[in-house]
Amino acid sequence: MVTASERKIVLVTRRTRLEELVAKHHTLAQAKFYLEHLGADFADYVRENAAYAKSLDTVVSTLQGWGRWQMVDRGFLTNFVFGADDIVVALGQDGLVANTMKYLDGQPLIGLNPEPQRWDGVLLPFAPADLAALLPEVAADRRGAKAVTMAQASLSDGQVLRAVNDLFVGPRSHTSALYELQLGQRHELQSSSGIIVSTGLGSTAWLKSVVTGSFGIASSLGRGTLPAYQPEPWDSPRLTFAVREPFPSRSSSAEIVYGHATREQPLVLRSRMPDHGVIFSDGMESDYLRFTAGLQATISIAARQGRLVV
Predict the structure, then answer these.
(1) Distance (Å, rounded) from C-alpha 6 to C-alpha 105?
(2) Which of 47, 219, 254, 269 shows its CA 20 to 30 Å from the CA of 169?
(3) In the chain, where are the structural domains located?
(4) What is the pLDDT of residues 7-27, one digit of tens each?
Protein backbone atom coordinates (compact mmCIF):
# COMPACT_ATOMS: atom_id res chain seq x y z
CA MET A 1 0.00 0.00 0.00
CA VAL A 2 1.46 3.34 -1.07
CA THR A 3 1.25 6.06 1.57
CA ALA A 4 0.06 9.56 0.73
CA SER A 5 3.57 11.02 0.73
CA GLU A 6 4.85 8.22 -1.54
CA ARG A 7 2.32 8.69 -4.33
CA LYS A 8 3.94 9.61 -7.62
CA ILE A 9 2.94 12.74 -9.48
CA VAL A 10 2.72 12.62 -13.27
CA LEU A 11 2.91 16.05 -14.87
CA VAL A 12 1.46 16.21 -18.38
CA THR A 13 2.61 19.10 -20.56
CA ARG A 14 2.24 20.19 -24.15
CA ARG A 15 4.35 22.26 -26.50
CA THR A 16 3.35 25.88 -26.96
CA ARG A 17 2.45 27.32 -30.35
CA LEU A 18 5.95 28.82 -30.58
CA GLU A 19 7.62 25.50 -29.76
CA GLU A 20 5.53 23.78 -32.41
CA LEU A 21 6.60 26.35 -35.00
CA VAL A 22 10.29 26.10 -34.06
CA ALA A 23 10.08 22.31 -34.34
CA LYS A 24 8.57 22.70 -37.80
CA HIS A 25 10.86 25.47 -39.10
CA HIS A 26 14.01 24.42 -37.19
CA THR A 27 15.03 27.83 -35.86
CA LEU A 28 13.39 30.69 -33.96
CA ALA A 29 14.37 33.14 -36.69
CA GLN A 30 12.69 31.07 -39.39
CA ALA A 31 9.59 30.66 -37.24
CA LYS A 32 9.46 34.43 -36.76
CA PHE A 33 9.88 35.07 -40.49
CA TYR A 34 7.08 32.60 -41.28
CA LEU A 35 4.63 34.23 -38.85
CA GLU A 36 5.42 37.81 -39.81
CA HIS A 37 5.18 36.90 -43.50
CA LEU A 38 1.58 35.80 -42.78
CA GLY A 39 0.89 39.02 -40.89
CA ALA A 40 0.58 37.27 -37.50
CA ASP A 41 1.68 38.80 -34.20
CA PHE A 42 4.95 37.06 -33.33
CA ALA A 43 5.12 38.89 -30.00
CA ASP A 44 1.93 37.18 -28.87
CA TYR A 45 3.50 33.77 -29.49
CA VAL A 46 6.51 34.86 -27.45
CA ARG A 47 4.32 36.10 -24.57
CA GLU A 48 2.37 32.84 -24.51
CA ASN A 49 5.57 30.81 -24.49
CA ALA A 50 7.07 32.89 -21.68
CA ALA A 51 3.91 32.58 -19.56
CA TYR A 52 3.87 28.81 -19.99
CA ALA A 53 7.57 28.54 -19.13
CA LYS A 54 7.02 30.57 -15.96
CA SER A 55 4.09 28.40 -14.91
CA LEU A 56 6.07 25.25 -15.65
CA ASP A 57 8.93 26.49 -13.45
CA THR A 58 6.48 27.03 -10.59
CA VAL A 59 5.02 23.54 -10.97
CA VAL A 60 8.39 21.80 -11.29
CA SER A 61 9.68 23.61 -8.20
CA THR A 62 6.70 22.32 -6.24
CA LEU A 63 7.14 18.76 -7.51
CA GLN A 64 10.85 18.72 -6.70
CA GLY A 65 9.93 19.39 -3.10
CA TRP A 66 7.28 16.66 -3.15
CA GLY A 67 9.28 13.56 -3.97
CA ARG A 68 8.50 11.08 -6.78
CA TRP A 69 7.37 12.75 -9.97
CA GLN A 70 7.62 12.38 -13.73
CA MET A 71 6.95 14.67 -16.67
CA VAL A 72 5.41 13.42 -19.92
CA ASP A 73 4.51 15.29 -23.09
CA ARG A 74 0.98 14.94 -24.44
CA GLY A 75 2.32 13.25 -27.55
CA PHE A 76 3.41 10.21 -25.52
CA LEU A 77 0.13 9.64 -23.66
CA THR A 78 -1.03 6.92 -26.05
CA ASN A 79 1.71 4.56 -24.85
CA PHE A 80 2.23 5.85 -21.31
CA VAL A 81 1.31 3.53 -18.43
CA PHE A 82 -0.13 5.30 -15.37
CA GLY A 83 0.15 3.67 -11.95
CA ALA A 84 -3.02 2.99 -9.98
CA ASP A 85 -1.92 5.35 -7.18
CA ASP A 86 -0.58 8.13 -9.42
CA ILE A 87 -1.81 11.71 -9.09
CA VAL A 88 -1.94 13.37 -12.50
CA VAL A 89 -1.40 17.08 -13.13
CA ALA A 90 -2.15 18.67 -16.51
CA LEU A 91 -0.62 22.08 -17.25
CA GLY A 92 -2.20 23.56 -20.36
CA GLN A 93 -5.51 24.28 -22.01
CA ASP A 94 -8.84 22.52 -21.44
CA GLY A 95 -8.09 20.19 -24.33
CA LEU A 96 -5.01 18.86 -22.55
CA VAL A 97 -7.12 17.88 -19.54
CA ALA A 98 -9.60 16.03 -21.77
CA ASN A 99 -6.83 14.32 -23.76
CA THR A 100 -5.18 13.19 -20.53
CA MET A 101 -8.33 12.00 -18.75
CA LYS A 102 -9.28 9.44 -21.39
CA TYR A 103 -6.09 7.47 -20.62
CA LEU A 104 -6.76 7.35 -16.87
CA ASP A 105 -8.59 4.74 -14.82
CA GLY A 106 -9.83 6.56 -11.73
CA GLN A 107 -6.63 8.48 -10.93
CA PRO A 108 -7.32 12.05 -9.71
CA LEU A 109 -6.55 14.71 -12.31
CA ILE A 110 -5.61 18.29 -11.42
CA GLY A 111 -6.03 20.89 -14.16
CA LEU A 112 -3.71 23.92 -13.91
CA ASN A 113 -4.28 27.06 -15.97
CA PRO A 114 -0.89 28.42 -17.13
CA GLU A 115 -2.33 31.78 -18.22
CA PRO A 116 -5.81 32.71 -16.90
CA GLN A 117 -5.77 35.97 -18.88
CA ARG A 118 -5.65 33.92 -22.09
CA TRP A 119 -7.56 30.67 -21.39
CA ASP A 120 -11.08 30.41 -19.97
CA GLY A 121 -10.16 27.15 -18.26
CA VAL A 122 -13.48 25.34 -17.70
CA LEU A 123 -11.42 22.28 -16.77
CA LEU A 124 -8.59 24.31 -15.22
CA PRO A 125 -9.86 25.45 -11.80
CA PHE A 126 -6.40 25.98 -10.30
CA ALA A 127 -3.30 28.09 -10.84
CA PRO A 128 0.24 26.66 -10.71
CA ALA A 129 0.79 28.38 -7.35
CA ASP A 130 -2.10 26.36 -5.87
CA LEU A 131 -0.38 23.02 -6.44
CA ALA A 132 1.71 23.00 -3.26
CA ALA A 133 -1.40 23.21 -1.06
CA LEU A 134 -3.44 20.85 -3.26
CA LEU A 135 -1.11 17.87 -3.42
CA PRO A 136 -1.21 16.85 0.27
CA GLU A 137 -5.02 17.01 0.26
CA VAL A 138 -5.36 15.01 -2.97
CA ALA A 139 -2.77 12.45 -1.86
CA ALA A 140 -4.68 11.89 1.39
CA ASP A 141 -8.02 11.69 -0.48
CA ARG A 142 -9.31 14.73 1.35
CA ARG A 143 -10.03 16.77 -1.77
CA GLY A 144 -13.27 16.51 -3.73
CA ALA A 145 -13.38 15.39 -7.34
CA LYS A 146 -16.03 15.80 -10.01
CA ALA A 147 -17.08 12.63 -11.84
CA VAL A 148 -16.88 12.83 -15.64
CA THR A 149 -18.63 10.29 -17.88
CA MET A 150 -16.55 8.97 -20.76
CA ALA A 151 -17.68 7.44 -24.04
CA GLN A 152 -16.24 4.29 -25.53
CA ALA A 153 -16.18 2.91 -29.07
CA SER A 154 -15.57 -0.83 -29.28
CA LEU A 155 -14.86 -2.32 -32.71
CA SER A 156 -15.71 -5.84 -33.75
CA ASP A 157 -11.98 -6.55 -34.23
CA GLY A 158 -11.28 -5.86 -30.54
CA GLN A 159 -9.97 -2.29 -30.73
CA VAL A 160 -11.25 0.25 -28.19
CA LEU A 161 -11.15 4.06 -28.08
CA ARG A 162 -12.44 6.27 -25.26
CA ALA A 163 -13.44 9.94 -25.30
CA VAL A 164 -13.96 12.59 -22.63
CA ASN A 165 -15.72 15.11 -24.89
CA ASP A 166 -16.86 13.35 -28.03
CA LEU A 167 -16.27 10.67 -30.62
CA PHE A 168 -16.34 11.46 -34.32
CA VAL A 169 -17.27 8.70 -36.75
CA GLY A 170 -16.88 9.49 -40.42
CA PRO A 171 -14.52 9.98 -43.36
CA ARG A 172 -10.90 11.11 -43.11
CA SER A 173 -11.48 13.68 -45.85
CA HIS A 174 -14.34 15.74 -47.28
CA THR A 175 -16.23 12.79 -48.68
CA SER A 176 -19.42 11.07 -47.60
CA ALA A 177 -19.55 8.68 -44.68
CA LEU A 178 -21.49 5.52 -45.55
CA TYR A 179 -22.72 3.29 -42.74
CA GLU A 180 -25.67 1.53 -41.19
CA LEU A 181 -26.94 3.02 -37.93
CA GLN A 182 -28.86 1.06 -35.32
CA LEU A 183 -30.40 2.29 -32.07
CA GLY A 184 -32.56 -0.26 -30.32
CA GLN A 185 -35.00 -1.70 -32.86
CA ARG A 186 -34.55 1.21 -35.29
CA HIS A 187 -31.93 1.08 -38.02
CA GLU A 188 -31.24 2.65 -41.37
CA LEU A 189 -28.59 3.12 -44.02
CA GLN A 190 -27.17 6.64 -43.98
CA SER A 191 -24.92 8.93 -45.95
CA SER A 192 -23.59 12.00 -44.13
CA SER A 193 -20.46 13.94 -43.29
CA GLY A 194 -20.14 11.96 -40.06
CA ILE A 195 -21.61 11.44 -36.61
CA ILE A 196 -20.71 13.18 -33.36
CA VAL A 197 -21.32 11.23 -30.16
CA SER A 198 -20.98 13.50 -27.15
CA THR A 199 -20.57 12.98 -23.42
CA GLY A 200 -22.13 15.32 -20.88
CA LEU A 201 -18.91 17.32 -20.74
CA GLY A 202 -18.69 17.45 -24.53
CA SER A 203 -22.31 18.59 -24.84
CA THR A 204 -21.11 22.12 -24.00
CA ALA A 205 -18.76 22.23 -26.99
CA TRP A 206 -18.86 20.65 -30.48
CA LEU A 207 -22.35 19.19 -30.07
CA LYS A 208 -23.67 22.55 -28.92
CA SER A 209 -22.40 24.18 -32.10
CA VAL A 210 -24.08 21.49 -34.24
CA VAL A 211 -27.43 21.86 -32.48
CA THR A 212 -27.20 25.67 -32.50
CA GLY A 213 -26.62 25.64 -36.25
CA SER A 214 -29.56 23.28 -36.79
CA PHE A 215 -31.82 25.49 -34.70
CA GLY A 216 -30.73 28.52 -36.70
CA ILE A 217 -31.55 26.84 -40.01
CA ALA A 218 -34.92 25.62 -38.72
CA SER A 219 -35.76 29.11 -37.49
CA SER A 220 -34.83 30.65 -40.84
CA LEU A 221 -37.14 28.18 -42.56
CA GLY A 222 -40.03 29.39 -40.44
CA ARG A 223 -40.20 26.50 -37.98
CA GLY A 224 -41.24 28.84 -35.16
CA THR A 225 -39.71 29.32 -31.73
CA LEU A 226 -37.36 26.49 -30.80
CA PRO A 227 -36.42 25.44 -27.26
CA ALA A 228 -33.16 26.64 -25.74
CA TYR A 229 -30.33 24.13 -25.92
CA GLN A 230 -29.64 22.42 -22.61
CA PRO A 231 -26.32 20.58 -22.19
CA GLU A 232 -26.10 17.37 -20.19
CA PRO A 233 -24.41 17.19 -16.75
CA TRP A 234 -20.79 16.01 -16.74
CA ASP A 235 -21.71 12.70 -15.12
CA SER A 236 -24.72 12.05 -17.35
CA PRO A 237 -25.54 8.33 -17.75
CA ARG A 238 -26.20 8.79 -21.46
CA LEU A 239 -24.46 9.98 -24.60
CA THR A 240 -25.97 12.30 -27.20
CA PHE A 241 -25.40 11.75 -30.90
CA ALA A 242 -26.02 14.00 -33.89
CA VAL A 243 -25.66 13.13 -37.57
CA ARG A 244 -23.94 15.88 -39.51
CA GLU A 245 -25.47 16.86 -42.84
CA PRO A 246 -27.51 13.68 -43.42
CA PHE A 247 -28.35 13.14 -47.08
CA PRO A 248 -31.57 11.28 -47.98
CA SER A 249 -31.47 9.40 -51.28
CA ARG A 250 -32.73 6.20 -52.90
CA SER A 251 -30.15 4.24 -50.93
CA SER A 252 -29.93 6.28 -47.70
CA SER A 253 -32.37 7.63 -45.10
CA ALA A 254 -32.24 10.56 -42.70
CA GLU A 255 -34.69 9.91 -39.89
CA ILE A 256 -32.47 8.83 -36.99
CA VAL A 257 -30.35 11.97 -36.90
CA TYR A 258 -30.34 12.83 -33.19
CA GLY A 259 -30.78 10.82 -30.02
CA HIS A 260 -29.22 9.22 -26.96
CA ALA A 261 -27.25 6.08 -26.25
CA THR A 262 -26.85 4.32 -22.89
CA ARG A 263 -25.21 1.18 -21.57
CA GLU A 264 -28.50 -0.65 -22.01
CA GLN A 265 -29.09 0.74 -25.51
CA PRO A 266 -25.80 1.53 -27.25
CA LEU A 267 -25.42 3.10 -30.66
CA VAL A 268 -24.32 0.49 -33.20
CA LEU A 269 -22.69 1.48 -36.50
CA ARG A 270 -21.61 -0.75 -39.37
CA SER A 271 -19.17 0.78 -41.80
CA ARG A 272 -19.82 0.79 -45.54
CA MET A 273 -16.72 2.88 -46.30
CA PRO A 274 -14.08 1.02 -48.37
CA ASP A 275 -10.92 2.69 -47.10
CA HIS A 276 -11.41 6.13 -45.56
CA GLY A 277 -13.59 5.60 -42.48
CA VAL A 278 -12.20 6.56 -39.07
CA ILE A 279 -13.20 7.07 -35.45
CA PHE A 280 -11.28 9.62 -33.40
CA SER A 281 -11.88 11.22 -30.04
CA ASP A 282 -11.61 14.67 -28.47
CA GLY A 283 -10.37 16.31 -31.65
CA MET A 284 -7.18 14.20 -31.76
CA GLU A 285 -7.17 13.07 -35.39
CA SER A 286 -3.76 11.44 -34.95
CA ASP A 287 -5.20 9.01 -32.37
CA TYR A 288 -7.83 7.12 -34.33
CA LEU A 289 -9.31 3.74 -35.19
CA ARG A 290 -9.77 2.68 -38.80
CA PHE A 291 -13.47 2.12 -39.42
CA THR A 292 -13.65 0.52 -42.85
CA ALA A 293 -16.20 -1.72 -44.57
CA GLY A 294 -17.20 -4.77 -42.59
CA LEU A 295 -16.31 -3.38 -39.16
CA GLN A 296 -18.96 -2.77 -36.51
CA ALA A 297 -18.62 -0.13 -33.78
CA THR A 298 -20.60 -0.27 -30.55
CA ILE A 299 -20.65 3.13 -28.83
CA SER A 300 -21.71 3.37 -25.21
CA ILE A 301 -20.76 4.65 -21.77
CA ALA A 302 -17.23 3.65 -20.76
CA ALA A 303 -16.85 1.52 -17.64
CA ARG A 304 -14.31 3.97 -16.21
CA GLN A 305 -15.04 7.57 -15.18
CA GLY A 306 -12.80 10.58 -15.08
CA ARG A 307 -12.06 12.29 -11.73
CA LEU A 308 -11.36 16.01 -12.02
CA VAL A 309 -10.14 17.55 -8.78
CA VAL A 310 -12.18 20.60 -7.75
Answers:
(1) 19
(2) 219
(3) 4-143, 149-302
(4) 999 999 999 999 999 999 999
